[in-house]
Amino acid sequence: MSATELWLSLVSCAACVGAVWAAARLVRRRAAEANEWMPGELKDHTLAYSERTFRSGGNRQVVARVDRAYRGRNGLITLVELKTRHANRFHLSDVIELSAQRVALAGETGEPVARIGWVVVESSARRTAHRVTLMSPQAVWELASRRDELLAGTESPSYTATRGVCASCAHRRRCRTGAEL
Predict the structure, then answer these.
(1) Is 76 exposed, middle or buried (0-12, 13-18, 19+ CB in 10 A)?
(2) Model's pTM, two decimal places?
C-alpha cells in the first residue's frame, strides 16, 4: 500500500469516527431536550398511552384522543396535551379537551385518572409544561349535553364579548350575532 493510499484510508477512518461521534452527541442532546419539559411530578411515571382514542361507553359517549398518558407508581394516570403555539400559554379549550380525555379514558379502561393534567406548549423552539385542574366528569357531561342542544337547535348560544374570538371562529358566517361584533 502506498503512502497516499494509507493517508486516504486514515483520513476516511477519522471522518467516519467523527461522524459517528457527532451523531451520538446529537441523539443524546435530543433525548435530553425531549425530557426537559417533563414536570418533576411526572419524572418517575411511565408512558401508558400515546395517540390513542378512547370511548367512555354508556348511552352517551365521550370520545377523545389522548396525546400522552403517563402512569404513576400508584397506578394513577396523568394526562398530557401537546400544543404548538406562538404564545406560551394554555386555553380553557385545552382544559376541556383534557377533561374529556379523562372521562373517555376512565370510562373505557376503568383506570383512575388524575384530576390534574398538563398542557405542554411548544413556542419559540422551547417547551413549557402548564399544570391545569381538570373539570369534573359531571361538568364534562353537562358540557356535552349543552353541545348536543346547540347542535339540535333547542338551545341558543351565548355570545362572546371579545371581538377576537368571533373573528377566528369557524361558525362566524352562520352566526347571527357574532358577525355583528
Answers:
(1) middle
(2) 0.73
